[in-house]
C-alpha cells in the first residue's frame, strides 16, 4: 500500500508542477506525426517532421538528465519499431534495429549524442519501410511471406510453404509469381540477403555465423548471393556502413 501511495504522490506532484509552470505534456497528436511518417515510409517528409517543435514538455523519466534522455530514446525507438512493423517492415528486422539503437544509446557519453542517435533512428526506420514498400497482396500470399520471414533460419521449400498456408505447391508457385513477379525461391533468397544486411549493420556476428543462421549452404555461396543482390561482398558492405556511421 505504501508503494502505491508513493507512486500516486509522485504522479500528483508532477501534474501539479506542470500546471503551476503552465507546461502541458507533449500531445499524442505530435507523436502521431512522426508515427505516420515512418508507417507510410514518407522519406520526403522526414526532415520537416524533425523540425516540428514540440507542443508540450517531455515526461520526467529520471532525476538524472543523462538517464532521462536515454530512457526517452528507448521510448522513442520502441514507438518507431511499432510504426515500422505497422508499415510492413518484417518484425525480426525491426526488432534487430531496435535492439541496436537501444544498445548504442546506452553507450552515449552526452545528451547531444543521444539526440543525434534519435534523429538517425527516425530517418533509418522511415527509409527501411520505404525500401520494403507497402505492397498489397492477397491474404494467402501475405501468409506465405510471413511464413518465410519467421523461417529464414530454416530450410524453406515450396512444399512446406504451401502446406503451411493450405495450398497445393503448384498453385502456390503460380499465384506467388503472378502477385510478386518472382518465384518463391528468389523471394526467399532476397529476404535472406535483406536479413543479412541488417545483421551486418546492427550486430557483430561473423560472416560464418550469419551464413549459417540464415541457412546458406556454404559461406562462399552466401558471399556470392549477397554480392549478386547488393553489388558488394558482406565484408565490404559491413565495412562501408560502419565507416559511414563514424562520419
Give a short synopsis of this structure:
By secondary structure, this protein is mainly alpha-helical. The protein is 73% helix and 0% strand. The longest helix has 22 residues, at 65-86.
Describe the fold and architecture.
The protein is an all-alpha fold. α4 runs parallel beside α6 (111-132), α5 (91-107) runs antiparallel to α6 and α10 packs across α13. It has helices at residues 2-20, 28-39, 46-51, 65-86, 91-107, 111-132, 139-150, 158-165, 169-180, 184-202, 207-213, 219-230, 234-245. Mean pLDDT is 83; it is low at 5-23. Helices cover 73% and strands 0% of the residues. It has 13 helices and no strands. The chain folds into 2 domains: 2-132, no CATH class; 139-245, Arc Repressor Mutant, subunit A.
Biggest sheet descriptor: none
N-end to C-end Cα span: 52 Å
Strand content: under 5%
Give the helix tally.
Answer: 13
Unreliable stretches (pLDDT < 50, length at least 5) are 5-23
Show the helix and strand layout.
Elements: H1 2-20, H2 28-39, H3 46-51, H4 65-86, H5 91-107, H6 111-132, H7 139-150, H8 158-165, H9 169-180, H10 184-202, H11 207-213, H12 219-230, H13 234-245
Helix pairs in contact: 2-4, 2-6, 4-5, 4-6, 5-6, 5-10, 7-8, 8-9, 10-12, 10-13
Amino acid at each position: 500500500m505504501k508503494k502505491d501511495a508513493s507512486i500516486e504522490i509522485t504522479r500528483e506532484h508532477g501534474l501539479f508542477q506542470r500546471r503551476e509552470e503552465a507546461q502541458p505534456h507533449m500531445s499524442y497528436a505530435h507523436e502521431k506525426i512522426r508515427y505516420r511518417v515512418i508507417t507510410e515510409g514518407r522519406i520526403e517528409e522526414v526532415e520537416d517532421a524533425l523540425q516540428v517543435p514540440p507542443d508540450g514538455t517531455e515526461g520526467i523519466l529520471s532525476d538524472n538528465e543523462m538517464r532521462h534522455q536515454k530512457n526517452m530514446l528507448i521510448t522513442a525507438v520502441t514507438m518507431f519499431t511499432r510504426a515500422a512493423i505497422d508499415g510492413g517492415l518484417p518484425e525480426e528486422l525491426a526488432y534487430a534495429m531496435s535492439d541496436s539503437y537501444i544498445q548504442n544509446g546506452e553507450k552515449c557519453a552526452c545528451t547531444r549524442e543521444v539526440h543525434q542517435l534519435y534523429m538517425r533512428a527516425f530517418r533509418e526506420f522511415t527509409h527501411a519501410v520505404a525500401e520494403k514498400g507497402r505492397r498489397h497482396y492477397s491474404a494467402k500470399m501475405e501468409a506465405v511471406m510471413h511464413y518465410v520471414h519467421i523461417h529464414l533460419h530454416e530450410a524453406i521449400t515450396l512444399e512446406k510453404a504451401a502446406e503451411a498456408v493450405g495450398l497445393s505447391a503448384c498453385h502456390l508457385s503460380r499465384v506467388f509469381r503472378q502477385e510478386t513477379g518472382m518465384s518463391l525461391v528468389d523471394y526467399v533468397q532476397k529476404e535472406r540477403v535483406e536479413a543479412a544486411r541488417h545483421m551486418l549493420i546492427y550486430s557483430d556476428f561473423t560472416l560464418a555465423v550469419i551464413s549459417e543462421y540464415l541457412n546458406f549452404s556454404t559461406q562462399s555461396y552466401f558471399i556470392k548471393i549477397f554480392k549478386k543482390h547488393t553489388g558488394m561482398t558482406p565484408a565490404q558492405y559491413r565495412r562501408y556502413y560502419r565507416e559511414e556511421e563514424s562520419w
